[in-house]
Amino acid sequence: MAVPKRKHSNSRSGKRRSHDRLTARQLQSCPKCGTPGPTHTVCANCGQYMGRVMVETEE
């Protein structure tokens, strides 16, 4: 079985892990009510998606 001959330095490990960070969710405002929310989801405030009512909300 192959075994590393030397330890990888902290710098080398850090370079490898540089892309493992978390990214923030993309938010966009609803065209009808203007509340920010994640893209490609039904609006939690008015219940619309792609200009159509998907969920009936009490107003």
What share of residues are in beta strands? 15-25%
> Helical stretch count?
1
Mean pLDDT: 90
Oligomer: single chain
Largest sheet: 2 strands, antiparallel
Can you tag this structure with a few keywords?
two-stranded antiparallel ribbon; alpha+beta; 59 residues
Task: Provide a short characterization of the protein structure.
Belongs to the bacterial ribosomal protein bL32 family. The protein is α+β, with helices and mostly antiparallel strands and 59 residues long.
How would you sum up this structure, described in words?
It contains 1 helix and 4 strands, in the order αββββ. With 59 residues, the protein is α+β, with helices and mostly antiparallel strands. The longest helix has 7 residues, at 10-16. It is rod-shaped. It holds the Pfam family Ribosomal_L32p. This is Large ribosomal subunit protein bL32. One of its GO terms (biological process) is translation. Keywords: Ribonucleoprotein, Ribosomal protein.
